[in-house]
Amino acid sequence: MTDVWSSRAQAMRDSPTHREGPDLDLVVDWCEPAEGIQALDVATGGQHVARRLREAGASVVTVDPAPGMEPDVISRAEELPFADGSFDVVACRIAAHHFDDVPGAVKEMARVSRDRVVIQDNLFQGERMEEAEKIRDPTHVRRYSEEEWRRFFEDAGLEIDRLEIMSRRMPVDPWLARVPVTPEVAARVKGFIADELEDGLVRHEAIILRGRTAR
Predict the structure, then answer these.
(1) Contacts for 99 with CB less than 8 Å, ≥ 6 apart
(2) 1 pLDDT band (50/70/90 cuts)?
(3) Whole-angstrom Cα distance, residue 67 to residue 72?
(4) Runs of H (alpha helix) within 81-145
(5) Cis status of the peptide bond prior to 180, with omega within 30 of 0
(6) Are 69 and 48 in contact (CB under 8 A)?
(7) Residue 62 resides in a domain
(8) CA 67 to chain centre
């Protein structure tokens, strides 16, 4: 699996969906970066969150299980190799739907945070979208609902003080090509998400949450 993601590293760095957007702006804002702030970027991918946090003056450690993403530390989100309360803020953006154990990962992020955890991920949009995601990308595990995300944070001892749901329409062909897929697979995926497609754009919903620790 890490080999698959290493092979996608440049695509993740170049992806406009990951490189920019109001969702990235909000994640960075909720992290409250500044000089002296120590941050952890979990499943860093193209390192876009880390880049923005550093630009704002924070000191950032990046973590990813794929060596090709060139993280500071190679690790799964479910097994973060840091002591309790090592960072002021822990962030994770557009990655959790690939995790084997999301509740466990959120607990780990809460454990190593002194103050806040900020997570963004794609929101559950029905079983047909789930099937399309798995056909497009076998590394996809599952999107989760707002209710499930609230429970993950609560079970991790995090008190949610910010939550926002964002919806946007993205070109479907670049989304498919980023993996990439064969024309036959692309056609199957489009068939599953026909209700979400309009003028070559597919609707994606994302949830962004910030939780505070009890420390």
Answers:
(1) 43, 76, 77, 78, 105, 141
(2) low
(3) 9
(4) 102-112, 127-136
(5) yes
(6) no
(7) yes
(8) 17
Is pLDDT above 70 for 69? yes
Separation between Cα atoms, residue 138 and residue 131, nearest integer Å: 10
For residue 155, tell me if it sits in a domain. Answer: yes
Q: Specify the amino acid at residue 107.
A: K
**Distance of CA 5 to CAs 45, 81, 137, 187, 213, Å?**
9, 21, 11, 23, 31
CATH number at residue 76: 3.40.50.150
Separation between Cα atoms, residue 199 and residue 173, nearest integer Å: 11
Domain assignment of residue 117, given as a range: 2-124+139-168+204-212
Q: Check residue 199 and report its DSSP letter.
A: T
Residue 173 belongs to some domain of the structure: no
Residue 60 inside a domain? The answer is: yes
Residue 13 phi/psi, 5-degree rounding, is -65, -35
User: Looking at the 3D structure of the chain, how many domains does it have?
Assistant: 1
Stronger pLDDT, 174 or 6, i.e. the higher one: 174
Strand partners, 116: 89, 212
How many Å from the N-terminal Cα to the C-terminal Cα in the chain?
35
Distance CA 82, CA 29 (A): 24
Q: How far is CA 167 from CA 11, 21, 125, 170, in A?
A: 23, 12, 11, 10
